[in-house]
Amino acid sequence: MALMKRWLARVPLTGWAFVFVLAVYWLRYSQVESVQAHGDAHYSWVFARSLAFDGDLDLRNDYALCGDPWHVGVDEGGGRPANPFYLGPALLWAPLLALMRVINPLTAAQEALRTGCSGPWLRDTLFLAPVLGALTLLLAGRAAARLAGEGAAAAAMLTLGFGSTLLHFATLVPGYSHVWAAFGVAVGLAGWLRAHARDGARDWFVAGLCVGFAALMRAQGGLLMLSLAGSLVASLWHARGDRGRALGVLLRGGLAVLGFALVFSVQLLAYKKLYGHWWVVPQGRAYLQLAHAHPWLLMFGARGGLFSWNPLMWLPVFGAAMLLRDRSWRLRAAALLVPLALDYVINSAPMDWHGNASFGARRLTVMAAPAVLFAAVFFARAWAWLSASPGRLAAALAAASLGPFFVVNWGASRGNLDGRVSYNAPVPMPELVGVGARLGVDAVYSRIGNPFVWPATAAFALRYGLGPAAFDRLATGGYFEHDYRPVRLRGVDTINFADASQDAVVAEGFRRDAEGLVLSAGQRGRVLVPVAWWSVTAVTLRGERTDGSSAAAPVRFRVGHFFGRREAATVMLTGRDEAHETAVNLGAFDSGINELVFECPASVRLRSLRLIDRAAHDTRLYGGGAP
Fold first, then answer.
1. Residue 627 in 3-state DSSP?
2. Predicted pLDDT of residue 4
3. Residue 540 CB: number of other CB atoms within 10 A?
4. Quick one: angle between helices 243-275 and 201-217, nearest 10?
5. Handedness of CA 413, 419, 423, 428 (dihedral sign)
6. Burial zone of 39 (CB within 10 Å; 0-12 exposed, 13-18 middle, 19+ buried)
7. Nearest to 181 by CA among 224, 225, 236, 219
8. Nearest residue to 57 (alpha-carbon basis) of 66, 44, 70
9. Is 585 left (phi over 0), alpha (psi -120 to 50) or beta?
10. How far is it, in rounded angstroms, from Cα 436 to Cα 406?
11. What's the N-to-C CA distance of the chain in angstroms?
12. Model-wide pTM > 0.85
C-alpha cells in the first residue's frame, strides 16, 4: 500500500488530467448505441477494410460490399477505383481491424457483418479515437508543463478536452479524420520541441518522422516542417562563421527532411497506385479556392465559426500573444504560429468553410495540441497576476462562480412572469436551469449580440450598418452552392425578394411588400445576401416600374464587399413584370457576404435575382487531358 501511495504521488497533474479525460471520452463513446462510419468516414473505412482484408488498395470489391454512396469510385488514371478521402487514419485502423477479426469472431447470427463494413469490428476498431484524443492532450500537456508548470498544463488539457471540438470528434464521430489529424499534429509538435531542446542528429531525424506522421493523417500537417525549418535557420544564424557547426546544422536539417520523406512516401505511393501520379489533389483543382478563402467567417460565423462554437478557444489566442512577448520563446512561438496560420487559411478555402452539417469548426480540431500549449501559458500568467493580489483573485473567483448562476436567475425570473418557467407547479431542474439560461442569454444577445465574436459584429456594423443578428444570419454558405467535381449547381440560385424568411437582409432604402422589394425614385437600396460559389457570369433580374410608366428605366446594379463596391451591370426595367438576363462584370461577385446595391431614377419593384455561372472550370486532378 505504501508503495502504491508513493507511485500515485509521483503521477503528475497532467497524468491525472489524461486519466480523467480518457475516462470521460471512453464513457461517452461506449454509450453510443451504433457506431457508424458515415460520410467522409465511410471512405476512410473502405481504405482500412481493403488493407486489413485484402492487403491492397484495389477498392473494387470493397465498394461492391460496402457501397459508394457519393459515386467517387471511378478510375482516375490508376486503373482502379479512386478514393479522394483520407488514407492516414486507415493505416492505424487496419492492423487493429485485422486483430479484431481474430480475437472477436462473429457468431452465425452476425454472418452479414463479416464484410467488415459495419458492426462490432468497426466499433471495436474506432475505440482508438477516444484513446488518441486523450493522448493528443497528454502529448501537448507534457510539453506545456515544461513551459508553464503542471497545474497550468493540466488546466489547459481539461479546457481543450472539454471546451473544443475534440470532445465531439473523439467520442461521437470517431471515423472522421479530425481527431486522427489532431493526434498527428500532437506527435509532430512533440517531435519538434524535443529536437529543438536536445538538438541531436537522431532527434531531428525523429522530428522529421513525427511531422511525416502528421502529414500522413492530413496533408496540411506537413506544414509543421516550417517549424523545424525555423529552428534550424535560427541555429544556422548562430553558427555563422563556424563552418563545422553550420555543416552540423545542415546535416540535422537533411535528416529531418529524410525522416519526413520516409513516412510521407506512403501517401505518395498510394496516390501513384490510385491515380497513376505521385502527387494530386484528389478532390480536383476546384476544391480549394485560396483566392476566395474565408478566414473571417471560419473564425466568427454562427455556422461553424471557431469562436462562436468554442469560445474557450480565445484562451489559447491570449496565451499565444503572451508567449510572443517572452524573449526566450518568441522565435519558437512564431515558428509554430506560421504553419498554424497557413493551415487556418487552407481550412477556410473550401467553399464549405463551415464544415457542412457538422459540429463547430471541425477542420480546426487539428489545432488542439498547439492550443493546449498556448492555453497553459495563459493560465500560468493569469494565475501569477491574480494571486499577486487577494482582491483580484476574489473578484475573479466570484465572477467565474456566480456569473453563470446570475444569468440563469435573471432569465428564470423573467420567464416566471409569463409562465415559461412555471409559477404554480413543481419545476424540474432541466426546466429551471435550461429555460432560465436560455432566457438570460437571449437577453444578452438581443442587446449586444454574441460577445465572443465582437470583432466581427463590430466591424460588420461599421461597414454595413446592421446588428449582430444580421451577421449571424448572413455568415453561412448561402445561395448558389456548387459541387466541386464536376462543378455544377447544387443549391438555390434565385433570391426571392418577396420572401422575408430567406437569407437576404434589407440594409437600406427598400420597402418589402408581398411581391418584392420596392425602391423609390432616386433612392439607393442595399440588400445583403450570402453567396456560396464565387463565379457569377450573369444575372437574371425580374421586376418592373411601379409609377405607371411603360418606358424603360435604368437600374444601376453594384456588388459590395467589405473593402468596396464593384460595378456589376445596368438593367432596363419597364412597366411590365419581366425577367432580364444580363452579363455582369468579371469579379463583381465573390463567395461570402455580398452587398447588392441598386439605384434607379424611377420607382421600381425588384421581385427576384437569379445567379448564373457559365464559365468553364478546370477540375482535373493533374496536368494533361481536357478540363
1. coil
2. 61
3. 16
4. 30
5. negative
6. middle
7. 219
8. 44
9. beta
10. 10
11. 72
12. yes
Angle subtended at Cα 102 by Cα 96 and Cα 108, rounded to the nearest 5 degrees: 120
What's the rounded Cα separation, in Å, for the pair 15 and 23?
Answer: 12
Cα 582 to the center of its chain, rounded Å? 37
Nearest to 347 by CA among 333, 332, 364, 359: 364
Going by C-alpha positions, the residue among 145, 183, 170 that lies closest to residue 22 is 170
C-alpha cell of 280? Answer: 494530386
Question: How long, in residues, is the chain?
Answer: 627
Q: Please name which of 511, 507, 513 lies closest in space to residue 560, comparing C-alpha atoms.
A: 507
Three-state DSSP class for residue 45: helix
Q: Are 467 and 449 in contact (CB under 8 A)?
A: yes
SS3 494: strand
User: In whole angstroms, what is the distance from residue 496 CA to residue 500 CA?
Assistant: 9
- 339 vs 342: CA distance, rounded Å: 5
Check: CB of residue 587 under 8 Å from CB of residue 564. no
CA distance 142 to 151: 11
Q: Indicate if the alpha-carbon torsion angle 15, 16, 17, 19 is positive or negative.
A: positive
Instruction: Look at residue 214 in the predicted model and tell me its pLDDT.
Output: 98
Quote the DSSP letter at residue 453.
G
Is residue 31 helix, strand or coil?
Answer: coil
pLDDT of residue 269: 95
Q: In whole angstroms, what is the distance from residue 625 CA to residue 276 CA?
A: 14
Query: Which cell is 584 given?
Result: 455582369
**Continuous segment of H or E residues that includes residue 572:** strand 564-573
- pLDDT tier at 486, thresholds 50, 70, 90: confident
Q: What residues have CB less than 8 Å from 532, skipping those under 6 apart?
A: 351, 352, 477, 478, 479, 480, 481, 482, 491, 591
List of long-range contacts for 65-69, beta carbons under 8 Å, 24+ apart: 65/115, 65/117, 66/42, 66/115, 66/117, 67/42, 67/117, 69/42
